[in-house]
Amino acid sequence: MKVLGIDPGLAATGLALVNGTSTQVFGYSFGTITTPPESPLTDRLIHIYDRIREVAEAERPDLMVVEDIFSLGKYPKSGITLGKVTGAILVAGRHGRIPVREVAVREVKKILTGNGAADKNQLERAVRQRLGREEAIRPSHASDAMALALIGLYRGDHYLRNGLDRIS
């Protein structure tokens, strides 16, 4: 199974692709999509959409796992912006006919570290351990995307059995 994990962000969206089974990783890659802050919002969203479509068409993943939207009470506008970015990503997945699943970050952290409140460093270390990788995965958006891709690999059969494009 090939899974594309995506950590949405307007300035930097993390991408990770993992290939394997529910118990073994055969290969992986990761990166980020960046957008310049001086560009209009719509241009930035189109850039993210286009890049996701390019990766989806080139790699043909079996499943796309996207971090679910969250909002911090202190920064409600950030949550709204994140929702716009996630919308562009979900549409890109749908246009590529890729089953899409949104997963809450707390669920990802709990599965990979055993602690739903783990910090970014703990999550990144857990991801590296599962990949057998010594080098840090940077930037953190790429590491978070890899965590989502691993969850998709581990739970992909369950997600796919429960319906395409089912979004929790």
From TrEMBL:
Record-listed Mg(2+) 2 binding positions: 67
Reaction it catalyzes: Endonucleolytic cleavage at a junction such as a reciprocal single-stranded crossover between two homologous DNA duplexes (Holliday junction)
Keywords from the UniProt entry: Cytoplasm, DNA damage, DNA recombination, DNA repair, DNA-binding, Endonuclease, Hydrolase, Magnesium, Metal-binding, Nuclease
Catalytic residues (UniProt): 7, 67, 141
EC id: 3.1.21.10
Gene Ontology MF: a single term: DNA binding
Subcellular location: Cytoplasm
Cofactor(s) needed for function: Mg(2+)
CDD domains for the chain: RuvC
Cofactor comment text: Binds 2 Mg(2+) ion per subunit.
Entry binding sites for Mg(2+) 1: 7, 141
Biological processes per GO annotation: DNA recombination; DNA repair
InterPro entries per record: RNaseH-like_sf (IPR012337), RNaseH_sf (IPR036397), X-over_junc_endoDNase_RuvC (IPR002176)
GO terms for cellular component: cytoplasm; Holliday junction resolvase complex
Quaternary organization: Homodimer which binds Holliday junction (HJ) DNA. The HJ becomes 2-fold symmetrical on binding to RuvC with unstacked arms; it has a different conformation from HJ DNA in complex with RuvA. In the full resolvosome a probable DNA-RuvA(4)-RuvB(12)-RuvC(2) complex forms which resolves the HJ.
Functional summary from the UniProt entry: The RuvA-RuvB-RuvC complex processes Holliday junction (HJ) DNA during genetic recombination and DNA repair. Endonuclease that resolves HJ intermediates. Cleaves cruciform DNA by making single-stranded nicks across the HJ at symmetrical positions within the homologous arms, yielding a 5'-phosphate and a 3'-hydroxyl group; requires a central core of homology in the junction. The consensus cleavage sequence is 5'-(A/T)TT(C/G)-3'. Cleavage occurs on the 3'-side of the TT dinucleotide at the point of strand exchange.
Family recorded in the similarity comment: Belongs to the RuvC family.
Protein name: Crossover junction endodeoxyribonuclease RuvC
Organism, scientific name: Desulfatibacillum aliphaticivorans
